[in-house]
Specification:
- By secondary structure, this protein is α/β, with parallel strands linked by helices.
- The protein folds into 2 domains: 104 residues, Rossmann fold (3-Layer(aba) Sandwich), CATH 3.40.50.170; 100 residues, Rossmann fold, CATH 3.40.50.
- It contains 6 helices and 9 strands.
- The strands form 2 sheets. It has a 7-stranded mixed sheet, sandwiched between helices.
- Helix 1 links the parallel strand 1 and strand 2.
- Helix 1 crosses helix 6.
- The radius of gyration is 17 Å and the shape is globular.
Length: 209
């Protein structure tokens, strides 16, 4: 069976991308990264991939008159590399229905909270301000809402009494690096199915035990 080709959209440090690369290299993820697309020429994620054999492209939002033109350029690049699954790794843009419809059920994201709690920006800060005792991370498919797409996997992380936003974020990020490749692997193994608009079922889930 051919390896699933994934395309990664990223804006920042690229630590989740590195975790995916490491999982592929370790044989835990049977996939191939077709292309990494950044939206900022100064993004560390593009520097992180420099010297690798993974194609990297910068599609700068500022070079396009409209959001749809920007997203069309991204879609064209993904199609050029025969991408089957779009993975968001710290991509700091909200995707429109135009883009989502082009890759329906094929866009995955990770969020640093146990959705539906604390969607949007600063999820770790929201958890601390709310006095939550447990936070975590969620891998989900993208829909038109803000972190409202069908949930694939979640992992809980305790909130400690002396936590700051930074220490909680670091603890969650460690779990993200494990959970995201695992969710992508399930997709590559054709084990994810979406029922209706919300529920994701994992086929042969007993194999996860």
């Amino acid at each position: 069976m051919n390896k699933t080709v994934i395309g990664v959209l990223a804006s920042g440090r690229g630590s989740n991308l590195q975790a995916i690369v490491d999982a592929i290299n370790a044989g835990r993820l049977d996939a191939k990264i077709g292309v990494v697309i950044g939206d900022n020429p100064e993004a560390n994620v593009l520097k992180r991939m420099a010297g690798s054999d993974i194609p990297t492209v910068c599609i700068d939002r500022r070079q396009f008159a409209t959001k749809q033109e920007f997203e069309a350029a991204i879609a064209e690049e993904l199609n050029l590399h025969h991408v089957e699954l779009v993975v968001l790794a710290g991509f700091m843009r909200i995707l429109s229905r135009y883009f989502i419809d082009r890759f329906a059920g094929k866009i995955m994201n990770i969020h640093p909270s146990l959705l539906p709690a604390f969607p949007g920006e600063d999820a770790q800060k929201q958890a601390l301000q709310y006095g939550a005792k447990i936070s975590g991370c969620t891998v989900h498919f993208i829909d038109e809402g803000m972190d409202t797409g069908p949930i694939i996997l979640q992992e809980a992380v305790p909130v400690l009494e002396d936590d700051t936003t930074e220490t909680l974020a670091d603890r969650i990020l460690h779990v993200e690096h494990i959970l995201y490749p695992r969710a992508i692997a399930l997709y590559c193994e054709r084990r994810l199915t979406i029922e209706g608009r919300r529920r994701v079922r994992i086929l042969n889930e007993e194999r996860e035990s």
